[in-house]
Amino acid sequence: MDKNKLFFIETWGCQMNAEDSEKLAGMLKELNYNESDNREDADLIIFNTCCVRENAELKVYGNLGVLKKLKDKNPNLIITVCGCMMQQRDMAEHIKKRFPFVDIVMGTHNTQMFPQYLKKVENERTSVVEIWDKEEGIVEGMPIHRSYDMKAFVTIMYGCNNFCTYCIVPYVRGRERSRKPEDIENEIKELVKNGYKEITLLGQNVNSYGKGLEEEINFAGLLRRLNNVEGLLRIRFMTSHPKDLTDEVIDAIAECDKVCEHIHLPVQSGSTNLLKKMNRCYTREDYITLANKIKTRIKDAAITTDIIVGFPGETEQDFDDTLNLVKKVEYDSAFTFLYSIREGTPAAEYTDQIPDDIKHKRFNRLLETVNLISEKKNKEYEGKIVEILVEGRSKHDNTKLMGRTRTGKLVNFKGSEDSIGKLINLKITKAQAFSLVGEEV
Ligand code: SAH
Ligand code: SF4
Ligand code: F3S
């Protein structure tokens, strides 16, 4: 009998792509492929690409260039490129032209077709380029091979309708569509049966969950429903758009015991003027009021964020407003990004682009502020007793175990392997810049 063939998937970008990769892996397992831990041994290499910022695309080009050598060595190697970057206009043709050795190019809307494309390439030694420009309905029941045990990501809605003026996601992921609550619940029950303890509900804007569904349900209702799943220990969710985070959702987070007190609430900018140009639909004041409400209603809540520096037209005053907001809200952590022009988005056409050197200077100032505050927030944990879900051995020191607090902070500690997969209480003995140290109590 033939030895099983090997696949290797490289995934860039966010959890949306990560989930698609898990589905591709699931389909390949059904075709008797095994996963390889390196590119060199693989019979099939898949690049799942992201295009949210220019540097994400540059990485893909760089890595594709290197694959040429592998293909020269092994002409039977099948190379597939898929993901968000392929959904951009003329990209598929561009990739085929520049990297003619690529066998399959597909987009984000036809992942379920992959086995057919693969068969075609294997049998006919031809190449396949197929991009669907629009999303079809949601395809349920696809096989999935998950990358982690214990923690799983479950997408509750696909696409985005918000069209922030800098962002490519709505163009490459299509319009917003929600999964039926029973499909989500069944998937989670199945996960729990298989030993999963924590799930993260995913969507570009989870707070608008439920629109267009037959059953009347919103995100707060979904949280309450899932909170009843027996055996599940923790529920997380990402991402919350500030304009749609209602009191009802805040109450659900506060009241549901499994729902963790961590809200990722991208602000993007602290200047009302820029927020308007970004089409974010809230003001600086709205955001600060919302953050305060979260802090008052949800005990010990962690708030994290995304911030863009150097959006077109950003003045010193706009940037100061951002710095000042960061200090006011006191984020537990923040992802900071340099604004990157995305062809096809409205902001790419703005004529008041910010020079790179100014962008970088502002970026460094922001990062310094963000890090100081993160450290201060971590320090507040010293001496406190917190609940941890123990995930396994620490990556950096395998004599230690690691887990996360309900607020998402990483804690390293000495303990017994029996506690892996369980909730335990730890006393935090030391705060470091990006993690905590604890001991069992
Ligand atoms: N749906 C989520 C996140 C989407 S992309 C949300 O609305 O918050 C993740 C982050 O990438 C965004 O929050 C934004 O901060 C950043 N981002 C998106 N487009 C960008 C661009 N053109 N340049 C720089 N950062 C960008
Ligand atoms: Fe992009 Fe805005 Fe949609 Fe987030 S909400 S994915 S930033 S368009
Ligand atoms: Fe990138 Fe697509 Fe996510 S563009 S950030 S992988 S939705």
TrEMBL record:
Cofactor note: Binds 2 [4Fe-4S] clusters. One cluster is coordinated with 3 cysteines and an exchangeable S-adenosyl-L-methionine.
Keyword Cytoplasm set for record: yes
Positions bound to [4Fe-4S] cluster 1: C14, C50, C84
Pfam families: Radical_SAM, TRAM, UPF0004
Gene: miaB_2
GO CC field: cytosol
Positions that bind [4Fe-4S] cluster 2: C160, C164, C167
Cofactor(s) listed: [4Fe-4S] cluster
Catalytic reaction annotation: N(6)-dimethylallyladenosine(37) in tRNA + (sulfur carrier)-SH + AH2 + 2 S-adenosyl-L-methionine = 2-methylsulfanyl-N(6)-dimethylallyladenosine(37) in tRNA + (sulfur carrier)-H + 5'-deoxyadenosine + L-methionine + A + S-adenosyl-L-homocysteine + 2 H(+)
Alphabetized InterPro entries for the sequence: Elp3/MiaA/NifB-like_rSAM (IPR006638), Methylthiotransferase (IPR005839), Methylthiotransferase_CS (IPR020612), Methylthiotransferase_N (IPR013848), Methylthiotransferase_N_sf (IPR038135), MiaB_methiolase (IPR006463), rSAM (IPR007197), rSAM_horseshoe (IPR023404)
Subunit structure: Monomer.
Purpose: Catalyzes the methylthiolation of N6-(dimethylallyl)adenosine (i(6)A), leading to the formation of 2-methylthio-N6-(dimethylallyl)adenosine (ms(2)i(6)A) at position 37 in tRNAs that read codons beginning with uridine.
Annotated family: Belongs to the methylthiotransferase family. MiaB subfamily.
Keywords for this protein: 4Fe-4S, Cytoplasm, Iron, Iron-sulfur, Metal-binding, S-adenosyl-L-methionine, Transferase, tRNA processing
EC number: 2.8.4.3
HAMAP family tied to this protein: tRNA_metthiotr_MiaB
Predominant subcellular localization, coarse grouping: cytoplasm
Compartment(s): Cytoplasm
Keyword Membrane: no
GO molecular function, one term: 4 iron, 4 sulfur cluster binding
Top-rank taxon: Bacteria
Designated name of the protein: tRNA-2-methylthio-N(6)-dimethylallyladenosine synthase
